[in-house]
């Protein structure tokens, strides 16, 4: 019996929530716009420095991975030739 009472309560609250959501729709976009206005965008110098750092780290890690790949491949080739 308690479940049916809870179901009735939920059904009664649903339309009120839907009406509230419809009214708040414009408010959500205003809040989103306000949030975008709070964003602090980086300046050109910061973007250049961070992009340079990312490119350098990527190249270094790529070289390390290529070196490890070459060493492992060479080692496996020598091991397989012996066997």
Q: What is the CA–CA distance across the termini?
A: 77 Å
Q: Pairing-aware structural class of the strands and helices? A: mainly alpha
Poorly predicted ranges (pLDDT <50, ≥5 residues)? none
Number of helices: 2
Please give the share of residues in helix.
Answer: over 70%
Major sheet characteristics: none
Q: How would the global form be characterised?
A: elongated
The residue-averaged pLDDT reads 81
Radius of gyration: 30 Å
Q: What percent of residues are in strands? A: under 5%
Q: What is the strand and helix layout of this fold?
A:
Elements: H1 2-37, H2 44-82
Description:
- The protein is mainly alpha-helical and 83 residues long.
- The chain is built from two helices and no strands.
- The model has no long low-confidence stretch (mean pLDDT 81).
Summarize the structure.
With 83 residues, this protein is mainly alpha-helical.
Task: Spell out the key features of this protein.
83 residues; mainly alpha; 2 domains; 2 helices; 0% strand
